[in-house]
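Fold this sequence, please.
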Amino acid sequence: MIRHAGLVALPLAGGWRGVLIEGPSGGGKSDLALRALDEGFRLVADDRVIVWSSGGRLWGRAPEVLSVLLESRGVGVLPQAAIPFCRIDLAIRCEASPEAVERCPADETLELADQTLPLRALWPFDLAAPAKLRRSIEHLGAAR
């Protein structure tokens, strides 16, 4: 399955833990991914993500034609070092405004390829959004 999304990953616990970033075109997915790279994340895929299930886990990678590329609105499509694939452990839904993100949201999930992912809403243009991504993936499964 191909998703209109971005995928970034953070090295944790001996492996890459991925964050799927979903939202509408122009909604800040690539902007958030670009800033997440400065927080220690690595690019896996920008704009399109091939998603599959294997071994009870969800995985993702870029389509071959888009691998190692990142679009930056106003700059264009640029080469960007990337990892070839990673496990997807968290999904982010980019919201259109800061008001659309609840302060203490209820737990949400996203069903993909017969797997269930935790889902968090985030305004991608929040200055703290990349740090929120990092903390969300680092504390995944901890009581909220």
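The mean pLDDT is 91. Residues 86 and 95 are 24 Å apart (CA to CA).
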